[in-house]
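Lecture 7 notes: from sequence to structure.

We start with a single chain of 801 residues. Read the sequence below before looking at the structure.
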Amino acid sequence: MELLRSNLSRVRIPEPTNRIYKEECCISFDTPKSEGGLFVDMNSFLAFGKDFVHWNYEKTGNPVYLHIKETQKLVSEDRPSKKPTLLAIGVEGGFDNNDPVYEQSYEIVVLPDYITLPFPSVELPEKVRLAVDAIIMSVGVEKKEQVAAWTADTKIISKHAMELKQLDNGVIVPPSGWKCEKCDKTDNLWLNLTDGSILCGRRNWDGSGGNDHAVNHFNVTKYPLAVKLGTITADLEAAAQMLLFYDEDASVIDPLLAQHLQHFGIDFSSLQKTEMTTAERELDQNTNFDWNRIQESGQEVEPLFGPGYTGLVNLGNSCYLAATMQVVFSTRGFCSRYYLDQSLKVGFDTAPADPTVDLNTQLTKLAHGLLSGKYSIPATKKDDGDVSQTTLTAKQEGIPPRMFKSVIAAKHPEFSTMRQQDALEFFLHLIDQVERNNSGNPNFDPSRSFKFGIEERLQCSSGKVAYNKRYDYILSLNIPLHKATNKKELEEFQKLKAEKNARGEELSSNEIVRPRVPLMDCLDCFSAPEELHDFYSTALNAKTTAIKTAGLTSFPDYLVLHMRKFVLEAGWVPKKLDVYIDVPDTIDISNMRSKGLQPGEELLPDSAAEDDVLNANEDIVGQLVSMGFQYLHCQKAAISTSNAGVEEAMNWLLNHMNDPDIDEPIGKAQKSAPFIDPSKVDTLISFGFDEEVARKALQASGGDIEKATDWIFNPPSGITNMDTTPSSSGTEVDAALPDGQGRYRLIGLVSHIGTSTHCGHYVAHIYKDGRWVIFNDDKVGVSKNPPIDMGYLYFFERIDG
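Now the structure, written as tokens:
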């Protein structure tokens, strides 16, 4: 006790603003349930496992810790199993509400001799008692950041409900016996509140649901609100189950539902609920989600344990993160940087005072958690009637990447939510953050193993050429459906589909035929010649047609191929291509290497000499003046956007009308160097573009990031060279990047199930130890039938020698 009293100065009573960690070690995945429990530093309020607490003592000198230990209690097996009523995890009414029950125990530990003192105890100093009580009563940072109640978004009142126009067409809807007006569907029916039509709902990604007749009806009529029949009861339970198929496209509230139903003769008080509401169906689909059927055709999967076979716990729609990180840590660069070449001790010693907010530390923690095998062991359960006896199960618990997710999402607001995200966007964000984190020592930067150069060659009708260069980490490929190898089967399928539709019959899942497109045809599309119309040639001083081709200036250690399965149809409606990609085990892309400027080729001249000033295009200026803008302002807008066009100049005008120098005469400095927002330049650089390219794009787009991105990929007329200098030799410019032969072997893929990248489910498959392994969140096992043809992201490793 005297030792504790002598160290009271190192004990703090936490304040409301303090971040308290008490559920997970900050440098490992140890928890209070682990064998040694968890030690909470009573000065910094960081938590450490039993093997790491002395590291913190050596680094900080803080000797007093609250030791928290949780022991599983015996619970009756006949405890009723509650069906979840909330789409949530870790909250009352949510999933996993039948988890084991644990009993907490506490004691005070003083290092370095691990002297223990019981808690609670009246003999403890008051300061210690108050500090411990505050820690126990507080909500840990882990739970706060998890946002455990990730329930579906709160329903909003529809903007159409209050002024909804209903047709006086004499439609009277009977209280039962409904049927879709377009097919024989008698369930999943929706009543349109404008014209009283009854149509079936959307087809789900797994083939269940309706035939899309309700949404097709909206696309034709634009009648916005519909209510699901069979979900309405006397208490208007369905008031929050409206579905708007256009600008809201979500469940919304109709405060006038009773009135709108009465228009069609519906007495809601007599209706009985026969169908699941939208929220209930969403819950039912989550509860009944069968990952074996989706990804492994219902086959039994043999579980795997040991180093490199550790699963990641789903934190709530975090499968995009889990699938991506499993593949990333199977690459040599990330494995070496954060596991083989960096121990947890080194990572902790070099971390700032709070290692929970340090990306390097959390990547090291995650790497050791995934690759060491420490946490890849069969889970245990207590035997019936004897809490002291345990039995191994055929699954592992996995590790929760909470701290890593918190750090990597700190500079990206979307990834900090519990919503589903695009695995591609996450991968690019991860690579960007890792590159920035290792900027001081690029030789240790594992993101470089994915980086490569892309060179575009433009040749106009004059025969002269221009070369544009950019860097990227993924190769995004269009899917040429016209290259499908099973066209005969597709034609027969379309005939069968038309016949069944005419008879009002549904296709069975085994009758559906999808296009099969070879991956090499997708790669050929990337480098195939493309015509650019209205290209302004500085050699001809006129618009003409140019031919654009693209190639790679270097072949990275790891090539990531992104399949553009999500496309935009007319009206900017997103659609997922229902297609299979035939992917071989190895590919050779040697023919895709860019040759750079060749002997005898002549570069297109710059649009203006280096010392010349850029003059405003009078056509652009004239059109803007005709709209009522001042002539001087119009000149500045045209110059500031490099004469890219009227729309770009107008956007610049609207954004700069209140500039203090808008009325000042045009000087040479402004003509040559308009102001560019540095933060927007940094944003484009984070996308993988060069700074000079980013500046030119922002200048040409009036500072609009989205348009600047489009400008980079589709340079407007008059812009020929986006780089500071045209490349004459790709190998010279990209000498610092990894390079080698163009032969690659497939090592992993991230596949996606769902109608968009922001919903559904992501799963990783990785080729390890001579076999394919499936990583589905915390489930890891031998893959008997890997869905190679269903990949969204493909990871290839370069073969040298």
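The mean pLDDT is 80. Keep this in mind for problem set 3.
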